Amino acid sequence: MSVSVLSPTGPLGSVSGLLQVVTLLSLVLLLLKAAQLYLRRQWLLKALKDFPSPPSHWLFGHKHEFQKDQELQHFLKWVEKFPCACPRWLWGSNFAFQVYDPDYAKVILGRPGYGLLLLNGQTWFQHRRMLTPAFHYDILKTYVRIMADSVQIMLDKWEKLITQDPYVEFFEHVSLMTLDTIMKCAFSYQGSIQLDRNSHSYIQAVGNLNKLICSRLRNAFYQSDFIYRLTPDGRLSHYACQVAHQHTEQVIKLRKADLQKEGEMEKIRRKRHLDFLDILLCAKMENGHSLSDQNLKAEVDTFMFEGHDTTASGISWILYALAMHPKHQQACREEIQSLLGDGAFITWDHLNRMPYTTMCIKEALRIYPPVPNISRVLSKPITFPDGRSLPKGIRVTLNIYSLHHNPKVWSNPEVFDPSRFAPGSAQHSHAFLPFSAGSSSEGQKKWILPDENHSGARPISLQQL
């Protein structure tokens, strides 16, 4: 007897049954995921019950509260209404616990820290101890002339550009200059990044990643890696990551090749102070092994990105702030020119003899912090000075921009007033955190502050902004 194709026991019947099973499993998985998100949100609401915030939508969070490109300014209204800290719901169970009080910041940053970007735990502590010599002041002093040469290349480019147009968009030029400086000082690079067209792709990739990270955080659908990879933003992010990693991998490869040359390793060992990359390549961990390729790349990626991008952002905002306040700009110019005399370059000794310029630089970094916020996940429960507490597992965001603009911390916070940082002025130890605080940021501060003082002061002394 033949079987009809319409029979439920035929091939079509089997396909139909399979589709029913798949549909049923998909519904079960969807319900389980929804239950998981619901329970997670309920746990978070309970954990955050002592920290009020404006009403939020269960799925879209506080999205309706914020307009694009005005988030920082709008959040300042929350700072005045909700003391010390409050949660900002992004979507569903995803939120950012925003901290903008110096006492709260001190408690959070006093905890054992994570790596600058990519490492944590015991690995982080071992690497910080190993890298401390790279930021010794004796070795940083030798970098000032390299910084001066890099700044001069940038200024020469500006001189040519302003003959064509009096207005110069200088952030990319500053980024190339800081990358040039860090490559020569910390990675033994020979040549000029600013004159190498291939380096522009790395700068562009870093800029794209900065924008894409922010846009991804705002989009609920982008939280899935699978969905994000299918979007134009996801593909651009993947490409930008490839470009950034290829750049650092090439730096490591070239330096490793140099160290293979006869006598080069012995020459390195005779140095009193090694630079950042040579310390990593020559290091032995406590277990006697060298750094793994993964950890080596993580450290180089971190310092390459933070060392040039944060510095470039800081310098650019310093120049912008002084351009907006010509009276203070002129006072800085006169101070620097009187200090230099007939000298062409700013030296290490000059950096501590520019009090007014330093005050202006700090005030610019207060109003325009180059890193507006930093985050970490609590590895242990934490209790704040006012008795409120958070459990383990909460992601805490130190909102540096809001801290620097908190009217309870700074009087008239929107006013550019360098006298806040006059010698002898009293401040809370954690009221001014342009580069965070604690052991995790000491290397950044030792590198960035001299670079910003030098690279910011030199253009001011020569040109009207």
Low-pLDDT sequence parts: 1-6, 113-118
Largest sheet composition: 4 strands, mixed
Q: Helical proportion?
A: 55-70%
Mean pLDDT across all residues, rounded? 83
What is the H/E order?
A: HHEEHHHHHHHHHHHHHHEEEEHH
Overall, the morphology is globular
Counted by DSSP, the helix tally is: 18
Q: Give the termini distance in whole angstroms.
A: 94 Å
DSSP strand content: 5-15%
Quaternary status? single chain
Strand order of the largest sheet: 1-2-6-3
What is the CA-based Rg, rounded? 26 Å
Structural account:
With 465 residues, this protein is mainly alpha-helical. It is built from 18 helices and 6 strands.
Task: Detail the topology: elements first, then pairings.
Elements: H1 11-47, H2 71-81, E1 85-91, E2 94-99, H3 102-109, H4 121-131, H5 137-141, H6 144-161, H7 171-186, H8 199-218, H9 225-230, H10 232-259, H11 264-269, H12 276-282, H13 293-324, H14 326-340, H15 348-351, H16 355-367, E3 373-377, E4 382-383, E5 389-390, E6 395-399, H17 400-404, H18 442-462
Parallel strand pairs: 2-6
Antiparallel strand pairs: 1-2, 3-6, 4-5
Helix pairs in contact: 6-7, 6-18, 7-13, 8-10, 10-13, 13-16, 13-18, 14-18
Task: Jot down its keywords.
57% helix; single chain; four-stranded mixed beta sheet; two-stranded antiparallel sheet; 465 residues
